[in-house]
Design the sequence.
């Protein structure tokens, strides 16, 4: 089930955060165009938060994120936010509207809760891949599957047989 995959992915992120100091978490990384691991982590967290907090309204707008500096500055705050997400994922799959202003156009697109969960999962894996690049050569132990799409993992396993 989709929520199981989200739990796996977000728990991998928690495991990584357990190894980082707040200083590691907030140092600008040349490999990330001087963004920080904390900024990438916050972005993932806040997309899930938007979906969960806006779910009842039926309209999801990811541009209305809080951009909480505490999440991108403190690993403990980020881990707490991730755990809160994991505790709220189980919701009925309802029709939603995805809303966004793009290049001066106000867009409203039909979607569902499950579709948006999948989008957030894919988006999170993508950002984890960027975080992994930033940690290359560091002493942080990064799981080989961290930031790798599940389809790629399955393909690699198939090729190894």
Sequence:
């Amino acid at each position: 089930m989709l929520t199981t995959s989200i739990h796996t992915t977000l728990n991998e992120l928690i495991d990584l955060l357990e190894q980082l100091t707040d200083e590691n978490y907030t140092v600008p990384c040349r490999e990330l165009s001087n963004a920080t691991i904390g900024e990438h982590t916050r972005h993932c967290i806040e997309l899930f938060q938007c979906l969960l907090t806006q779910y009842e309204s039926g309209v999801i707008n990811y541009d209305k994120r809080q951009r909480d500096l505490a999440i991108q500055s403190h690993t403990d705050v980020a881990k707490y936010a991730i755990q809160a997400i994991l505790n709220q994922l189980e919701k009925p799959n309802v029709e939603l509207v995805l809303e966004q202003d793009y290049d001066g156009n106000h867009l409203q697109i039909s979607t569902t809760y499950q579709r948006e969960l999948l989008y957030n999962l894919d988006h999170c894996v993508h950002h984890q891949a960027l975080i992994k690049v930033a940690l290359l050569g560091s002493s942080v132990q990064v799981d080989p599957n961290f930031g790798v799409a599940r389809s790629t993992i399955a393909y690699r396993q198939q090729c190894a047989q």
In short: The chain has a mean pLDDT of 94.
